Amino acid sequence: MKKVFVTGATGLLGTNTIIKLLQYDYSVIALVRKKSSWMGEESETLKLIEGDLFSDISEHLQEVDAVIHMAAETSQDLLRYEDYKKINYDAVVHLFAQAAAAEVERFLFVSTANTLGYENSGVLGSENDSQLYPFTHSFYAKSKLETENYLLQQNRGTKVVILNPTFMIGAYDRKPSSGKIIFWAWRKKIVFYPIGGKNFVHAEDAAEGVIKAIEKGKHGEKYLLANENLTYKEFFGKINTITGNQSFMIPIPNSGLVVLGIIGDCLRKLNIKTSLSSSNMKALRINNFYSNRKSSEELGIRYQPVDKAVEDAIRFFERENNEVKITRPI
């Protein structure tokens, strides 16, 4: 039985990954802030340990085959690069040093697709494409890229595999995090949408990709965990179809997003936290599209339709609120 050490265990991807690891007969040690935050079932092969990313975990890395690092600072409203660097870079350096000292075979780092270039001139973004604006101006994406570069420069015995998931949707999004986008359209009579788009992937499939990378991921390689490229209008249309909702959809003018970005930039200069910024508003106006060819061919992932991801997310949200509101069978 293979043994893995996991961070970010209570997040959307972390929960889905651990559930699958246990199904595949892995032994899992998971770092959590509080054991009570774990949403999955208890298991004899799951050990929860309390701590933070700067804890000394060396005793838990003995005979561990792989470390899967998913924990990150993902907020979009922090004002300084240092606010991201502490968790997204410094903590990873600390964790990798302990993994290498314990001679862990593999270190899997879950990054983001936004460290890579997106669709350009009709060609989908791939693992070979360099980061582009607006993500070059995103403190979050920059901190992830800095960490990727650090890990890929290491020449120790521990092998490094980088995973770059796109926008994940699915169950166990307790905060919610990325699932907030569903609430933009769910049960709304009027939906305002930006003209850009994203690549969406089922969190279950991203979790499957993480696990397959333990066995098949190549040292020093990056793998996009990506599926369907959809405009926001198409994505919100799926929510309406799945839930039986009928909403009137209105595009947000680009000029409006530009103004919001400028307002956000001014608020940030006044040290006021906000997710508004020119770079974030630009991200809503581009087609942030990617290819999953490499992960499909080399890792053998079979991606599920995004409709299934939306259905699973909505079911989870309804279950959390003790509701059953979906109007069509799914």
From TrEMBL:
Cleaved signal peptide residues: none
Domain NAD-dependent epimerase/dehydratase: 4-225
Pfam families xrefs: Epimerase
InterPro entries: Epimerase_deHydtase, NAD(P)-bd_dom_sf, NAD(P)-dependent_oxidoreduct
Lineage: superkingdom: Bacteria
PANTHER family: NAD(P)-BINDING DOMAIN-CONTAINING PROTEIN-RELATED (PTHR48079:SF6), PROTEIN YEEZ (PTHR48079)
Protein name in UniProt: Dihydroflavonol 4-reductase
Originating species: Chryseobacterium vrystaatense
